[in-house]
Structures are given as structure tokens and as C-alpha cells.
Design goal:
Helix content: 25-40%
CATH class of the largest domain: Alpha Beta
Largest sheet: 7 strands, parallel
Structural class: alpha/beta
Shape: globular
CATH architecture of the largest domain: Alpha-Beta Barrel
Strand order of the largest sheet: 3-10-11-12-13-14-15
Strand content: 15-25%
Length: 404
């Protein structure tokens, strides 16, 4: 109970919510006084257990089963205090919330002579689609951090678009709902998960099919050909959105990695947002929350965020890593929008004093007024200070005790 402005007495609900409940309170626009701390340490965990030259065993941000023997692999030097602990064990030890991305929630299969092949030799992986109209392939190299890094795009140029159309025509999706329920059940009250839809049609052109330069030429040379592509790809992508509507997961992440380096405000507004809103209408009709991953330079895109129809912005990482301040992001959110906002991960690698990290978190908390899920922006790298993550978590826990 407290005396408020004009002498009125306010009664605050004292709610002891678990991590999952707190997250959904924020997404419902209730702006709770408690602040969730949901760091993603999967890259750090996987990297510490990995030997140099080996690929990472899992993708970033996914659920790692407790029974996986990776916890007993010494790797490059997992600290003794964490040896033998599963990822979830660490989250339980420090009472953090967890948010996982489920990437393998559906199966992709092909018909009518379209074949997919993946070949790995040493540090090179080549994926190939074979059709009656020709082949498309993309090459990846094993990066120093153990991730697979693409060195080209699926199409050499727009002249191969007909081959892509043939692949899309004979691509089909099958829901793996057991996978979704398994992850959500294993996370339990400690957090939640989303299912990932990789890219809007325009995002696929930029990131996967053509790249920035060839996309620019393609649209300048023949905008009608672009619109033909957009329709074919949108129809296929909405099939996947329809499948997501049938899933048991309550959050769907449309992952464009939108960044103003690749997506101009004009392109983003004209070619991305219409897809987001069409997909969002379907998903919201099925009772889903819609999220997107935006972990880059956003300053010029911030005025458009309220028009996207997203409920959640994931991966937000302000300055000094990217070109906006937490306060600018907070001001750009539409009504009832929430955001994962991180203390920039580079500050966990360069010796920044823990006091500055805690002060940065305080800025986020103040700016977002109950609409932020605080984390490490966007993920703790293998050379990041896990001890500073632990201390930051204790700082936020102390804040929550004071406002409870």
C-alpha cells in the first residue's frame, strides 16, 4: 500500500509468478513491476564444451536435453563449477528464465522428382536441390566458432528463378507437434519457446536466394518478375504459417534478421510488413503471439515497428553494438508490444566493469516500464564472462525484491 499523487492510496498486487507466467503477463500488456532475466547462454555453453575444429552440436538458442552427454565433454575448458551440468541445470541454479527457439518443429519433404541432398566433407558442407529444370546449390564453410557460414547464395542470379519455382512447387511441410510439446514440457515453468519461420519472401531473397546486390538488380531490371516471385514464395510461406496455426506452440517467430544495413525503410515497409501482417492475421486468429528477431542496426526502421503487427521483438541489442539507444527502442514500440532487450554482449567480452553492466540494465528497465524481457544482447559468446551474467542476474533479482 502506498500514498500516490493527490493523496490517493494505491494497493499493488503482490504476485509470486513463475518465469513463464511473468513472460506472458508482459506480452498481455499488463506491465508487471517484476522484471524477467532471460539470458541466452547456449553459444557459450556449446562453445565451452566444444573442441577446436568441431562444428557446434546445436544451433543457437535451442533447447538442449538434460540427458545429452555434452555436459561431460571438457571441450576447450568448461569451468569446473559447470562440468556435468546440463544447460537447464545452470538456469535452475541461478533461477533464470529461459526462452528457446524450436527450429525442427516441422519436416520438409519433396515430390515429383525434386530431391534435396546435403554433403559434408571436412570443413565444407554443400546443400543441393535437383529438379528436372536444373540444380541449385549452396556452400557453407565451418567457421572458427563452429558454426556453418554460407559463402554464396542458392541462386547464381535471377535467371535461375524458374528452378526455384520448381523446388517451391514440390515442397511440402509436415507438423512435428510431438517435438514442440516435448520442448515446452521440459522447459516447464522456467520459461517458454517459440517455433521459427525462417524469413519473409523478401527476406529470403536478401539472405538466402540472391543477396543484396543481385536482389537490387533483379528488382530494378524487372519489378514484374519480382512480384511473380513474391506471389509464389508467399503462397508457399503461408502454407507453413497455416501449419504453425495448427501447432501447440503459442509463439511464432518470423525470423528476418531485419537490419537497416540490408533492409531500407522503403523496402521494409513495402515488401516485408505486408507479409508480416498477413501472417499475423492468420496466427492471431489461431490465438498465437507473433515475434520477430531483430538483432542489428534498427535506427531507421524504428518508426515502422509499430506497423508490423508483431507482439514481440526478439534479440534487440542497443548501442554500442548497434545504432540505437534503449530509450529510442522503447519509444518506438506499439501499444502492448514487448521486447527482449539485452545489455550488449560485447560488454561481457571487453572487461566492462560489472557496475556499468548493471547500470545499463537499469536503463532498460526504466525505459520500457514493464515491457522488456532483459537478457544479454543478443547471446553470450564463448569468450563472454559468465560470472558477469550471474552477477547481473543477482542485480535484477535484487531489483525485483525491492519492487515486490
Amino acid at each position: 500500500m502506498s500514498a500516490g499523487k493527490y493523496g490517493l492510496v494505491h494497493y499493488e498486487r503482490i504476485i509470486h509468478m513463475n518465469h513463464r507466467q511473468l513472460f506472458f503477463e508482459i506480452c498481455a500488456g499488463k506491465q508487471p513491476s517484476q522484471v524477467p532475466f532471460v539470458p541466452d547462454i547456449t553459444d557459450w555453453y556449446l562453445g565451452q564444451h566444444r573442441n577446436i575444429g568441431e562444428p557446434l552440436k546445436y544451433a543457437p538458442g535451442v533447447y538442449i536435453p538434460d540427458e545429452d552427454p555434452i555436459k561431460y565433454e571438457k571441450g576447450i575448458g568448461i569451468p569446473d563449477k559447470f562440468f556435468g551440468l546440463s544447460l537447464m541445470d545452470i538456469y535452475k541454479r541461478y533461477d533464470w528464465g529461459i526462452h528457446c527457439h524450436i527450429r525442427d518443429w516441422y519436416e520438409e519433404y519433396y515430390s515429383d522428382g525434386v530431391e534435396y541432398n546435403e554433403k559434408v566433407e571436412s570443413n565444407t558442407k554443400i546443400v543441393t536441390f535437383t529438379t528436372d529444370k536444373g540444380c541449385l546449390s549452396r556452400t557453407y564453410k565451418l567457421a572458427a566458432d563452429g558454426s556453418w557460414c554460407s559463402i554464396n547464395y542458392l541462386l547464381d542470379d535471377a535467371s535461375q528463378m524458374e528452378i526455384l519455382f520448381e523446388v517451391l512447387k514440390h515442397t511440402h511441410f509436415r507438423l512435428k507437434n510431438d517435438r514442440i510439446t516435448s520442448v515446452i514440457n521440459n522447459i516447464g515453468d522456467r520459461g517458454q519457446a517459440d517455433i521459427v519461420v525462417n524469413r519473409s519472401p523478401f527476406g529470403k531473397l536478401l539472405h538466402e536466394y540472391l543477396g543484396f546486390e543481385n536482389t537490387t538488380y533483379f528488382m530494378f531490371d524487372n519489378i514484374d518478375a519480382y512480384y511473380e516471385y513474391e506471389k509464389v514464395q508467399t503462397d508457399k510461406d503461408l502454407e507453413l504459417i497455416e501449419l504453425a496455426c495448427k501447432s501447440s506452440c503459442s509463439i511464432v517467430l518470423i525470423c528476418d534478421h531485419a537490419d537497416s544495413t540490408l533492409f531500407s525503410p522503403e523496402w521494409y515497409g513495402k515488401y516485408c510488413i505486408p507479409f508480416y501482417r498477413a501472417a499475423g492475421q492468420m496466427l492471431r486468429g489461431a490465438g498465437k503471439l507473433i515475434s520477430t528477431h531483430v538483432d542489428g542496426n534498427l535506427k531507421s526502421l524504428l518508426p515502422l515497428m509499430k506497423d508490423t503487427g508483431f507482439d514481440i521483438l526478439d534479440g534487440c541489442t542497443p548501442a554500442p553494438m548497434f545504432n540505437y539507444q534503449p530509450e529510442e527502442l522503447a519509444e518506438s514500440l506499439g501499444e502492448n508490444m514487448a521486447a527482449f532487450v539485452g545489455v550488449p554482449s560485447a560488454l561481457f567480452c571487453d572487461g566492462t566493469p560489472i557496475g556499468e553492466l548493471c547500470s545499463y540494465a537499469d536503463r532498460i528497465i526504466k525505459a520500457f516500464k514493464g515491457r522488456a524481457i532483459v537478457n544479454v544482447g543478443d547471446i553470450l559468446p564463448v569468450n563472454g564472462s559468465i560470472e558477469n551474467v550471474i552477477t547481473l542476474g543477482e542485480h535484477i533479482k535484487s531489483y525485483n525484491e525491492k519492487v515486490r
